[in-house]
Description:
By secondary structure, the protein is mainly beta. It is 3% helix and 50% strand. The strands form three sheets. Strands 2-12-9-4-5-6 form a six-stranded mixed sheet.
Amino acid sequence: xxxxxxxxxxxxxxxxxxxxxxxxxxxxxxxxxxxxxxxxxxxxxxxxxxxxxxxxxxxxxxxxxxxxxxxxxxxxxxxxxxxxxxxxxxxxxxxxxxxxxxxxxxxxxxxxxxxxxxxxxxx
Length: 123
C-alpha cells in the first residue's frame, strides 16, 4: 500500500525559508519519482516540482524556480522540498505525490498524495 505523509509546513514571514518533507512507503521513489503540488485557497492545484525517478532530473514551476530545491534521502524514504525567499503567494497546502514525470515541459503527477502540510505567510 502506497502511503505519503507531508510535514514541515508552518507560518513564516515573507523572505523566510521552510523545508517540507514527504515520508513515503509502498513504492520506490528512485524508480517512480516524487512530485509536489500545492493548493491555495480558492485556486486550482499547481504542480510545482518533480524529482524524476527515471533519470533523477528535477523540474520546477516558474512560480518557484530559483528559490526551491527538491532532494531525496532514499535511506530515510523521504523527499524534501526546500523553499527559500518565501512570498505571500506561496500560502497554500502542499502535497507530495507518488510519481511524476515531465514531457515536453508539462509536469505530470501521480494520483496518490498525502494529507498535506500548510504553509502560511505571516507577514
